[in-house]
Design the sequence.
């Protein structure tokens, strides 16, 4: 009975929630800063190069979006519990295409053939790729991706890459 009484409070809280920044462990801070700034155009808002406490804050100069923490080794393990992928929405499919150009110019691993719809017949869609440590990323727009086949028929593209 106690759990049922807390649900309305939780629902009220969820109506007010917004995603804050996302923190990612990286193996090479300088490489990751360069990658995320090149792909997303983030401003570097703060950085520490203190040994054992290397990190960077990236955002738009006012709002923090991403924190990078140099405290890992190896590559992202998509088969372990935890983050599946990190997704960023942009205003138009042209913005997605421009991001694809930047991702390709950096030599990052790009899934599929480029911009793809989220599901069969969907107008929303984007690109799916990896950062230098293998963390899976998505950049999408809510419309403009219709007209091509989804790479994973019968399932959401963002769930199976």
Sequence:
């Amino acid at each position: 009975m106690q759990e049922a009484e807390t649900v309305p409070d939780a629902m009220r809280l969820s109506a007010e929630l917004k995603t804050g920044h996302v923190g990612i462990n990286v193996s090479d801070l300088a490489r990751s800063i360069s990658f995320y700034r090149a792909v997303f155009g983030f401003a570097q808002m703060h950085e520490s190069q203190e040994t054992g406490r290397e990190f960077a804050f990236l955002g738009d100069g006012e709002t923090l979006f991403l924190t990078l923490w140099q405290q890992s080794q190896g590559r992202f393990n998509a088969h372990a519990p935890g983050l599946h992928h990190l997704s960023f929405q942009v205003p138009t499919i042209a913005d997605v295409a421009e991001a694809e150009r930047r991702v390709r110019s950096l030599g990052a691993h790009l899934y599929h053939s480029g911009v793809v719809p989220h599901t069969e017949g969907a107008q929303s869609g984007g690109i799916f790729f990896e950062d230098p440590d293998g963390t899976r990323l998505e950049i999408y727009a809510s419309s403009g991706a219709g007209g091509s086949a989804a790479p994973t028929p019968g399932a959401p593209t963002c769930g199976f890459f």
Observations:
- The two ends are 41 Å apart (CA to CA).
- The CA atoms of residues 57 and 67 lie 5 Å apart.
